[in-house]
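Figure 6 in text form: structure in, sequence out.
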C-alpha cells in the first residue's frame, strides 16, 4: 500500500520512507533518527549494575532451584520404569504447602519470584505423580479394582490398561487415600483442597491472625520434609544408605534460601522456617559424623527429594 502511494507521486511520509529503506535493506537505527528511543535504551543499559544482575540470578535460582532435585529423580523413574523408591507423600506435602503459600500471597504480598516458585513446584509435583501412577499401573501384571478419590471402582476387564467407567461417585475410602490408581483422582483432590482453602481465605482475608497462621503452616510443612530422614537415622543409629551429597545439597540450598529471604525482607514465616530447615540439615550432618562408626548398616533408603 505504501509503495503504491509512492508510485502515484503522493507525498512521502516518514513511515513510508522507513518502510522503503527496510524493504531495500538500507534502514539504519541511530540516535539521530530516534533520539528519545536511543536515550531510553542507553539509560536502561547504563542502569544494569552488578547488584541488579545478582538479584536477577538469585531470583531465577529461587524460581527454578526448588524443582531441580526432582529432575534427575523423574528421569531415573522413567529410565528404570520403577517408582517404588519415590514416596508420593513428598508430592502431597509439597502440593499442600505450596498451595497454602500461594493463598498466603493474597493476604500478605511477598516477592513474585517466591510466588512463581510455588506455582512451578506444584506443576513439577503433578508431573511426578503422573509419571509414578503411569509406571505403577504398567508394572502390575494383574490389575485389581480401580482405587479412585471418590471410592473403589470396578475391576478391570481383559484389557488391563483400559479402565472401566467409575462407580460409587461418593464412596470415599480413607484406606486408599493418596494411593489412587488414576491421575485424575490426584487432580480432583487438589482442586477440592484449593477450592475449600480459597473460599476460607476469601472469607477470612481481613483477619491478620488467619493470614499469619496460613503462611506459617505453608512454610512449616515445607520445613518438615527432612524430619522423616532424621527420625530414620535416629532409630537405626546409622546413616548408611543415605546420600551425604544429597544432605549437603539440602544444606547449601536452605542456607541460600534463608539468606535470600532475609536480604529481600520476605515475611517472617519464610526466614523462620528456612532457619528451621537449616537446623534440621545440620542435625542430619551431625548424625553422619556421630553414627559413622555404627555397628549395623541400615537398609538402603532412596529419598524422594525435597523442595529447595
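Output sequence:
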Amino acid at each position: 500500500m505504501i509503495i503504491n502511494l509512492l508510485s502515484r507521486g503522493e507525498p512521502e511520509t516518514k513511515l513510508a520512507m522507513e518502510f522503503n529503506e527496510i524493504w531495500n535493506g538500507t534502514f539504519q537505527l541511530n540516535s539521530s533518527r530516534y533520539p528519545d528511543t536511543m536515550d531510553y535504551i542507553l539509560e536502561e543499559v547504563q542502569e544494569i549494575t552488578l547488584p541488579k544482575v545478582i538479584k536477577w540470578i538469585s531470583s531465577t535460582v529461587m524460581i527454578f532451584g526448588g524443582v531441580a532435585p526432582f529432575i534427575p529423580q523423574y528421569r531415573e523413574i522413567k529410565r528404570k520404569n520403577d517408582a517404588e523408591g519415590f514416596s508420593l507423600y513428598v508430592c502431597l506435602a509439597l502440593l499442600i504447602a505450596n498451595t497454602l503459600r500461594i493463598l498466603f500471597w493474597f493476604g500478605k504480598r511477598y516477592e513474585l519470584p517466591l510466588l512463581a516458585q510455588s506455582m512451578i513446584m506444584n506443576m513439577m509435583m503433578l508431573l511426578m505423580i503422573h509419571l509414578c501412577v503411569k509406571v505403577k499401573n504398567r508394572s502390575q501384571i494383574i490389575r485389581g479394582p480401580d482405587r479412585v478419590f471418590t471410592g473403589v471402582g470396578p475391576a478391570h476387564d481383559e484389557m488391563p490398561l483400559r479402565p472401566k467407567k467409575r462407580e460409587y461417585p461418593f464412596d470415599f475410602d480413607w484406606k486408599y487415600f493418596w494411593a489412587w490408581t488414576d491421575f485424575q483422582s490426584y487432580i480432583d483432590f487438589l482442586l477440592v483442597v484449593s477450592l475449600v482453602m480459597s473460599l476460607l481465605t476469601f472469607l477470612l482475608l481481613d483477619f491478620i491472625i488467619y493470614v499469619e497462621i496460613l503462611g506459617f503452616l505453608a512454610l512449616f510443612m515445607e520445613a518438615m520434609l527432612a524430619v522423616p530422614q532424621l527420625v530414620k537415622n535416629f532409630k537405626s543409629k546409622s546413616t548408611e544408605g543415605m546420600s551425604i551429597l544429597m544432605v549437603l545439597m539440602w544444606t547449601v540450598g536452605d542456607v541460600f534460601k534463608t539468606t535470600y529471604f532475609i536480604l529481600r525482607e520476605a515475611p517472617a514465616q519464610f526466614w523462620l522456617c528456612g532457619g528451621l530447615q537449616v537446623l534440621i540439615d545440620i542435625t542430619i550432618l551431625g548424625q553422619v559424623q556421630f553414627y559413622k562408626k555404627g555397628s549395623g548398616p541400615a537398609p538402603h533408603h532412596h529419598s524422594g527429594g525435597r523442595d529447595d
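Caption detail: The first helix runs from residue 2 to 7.
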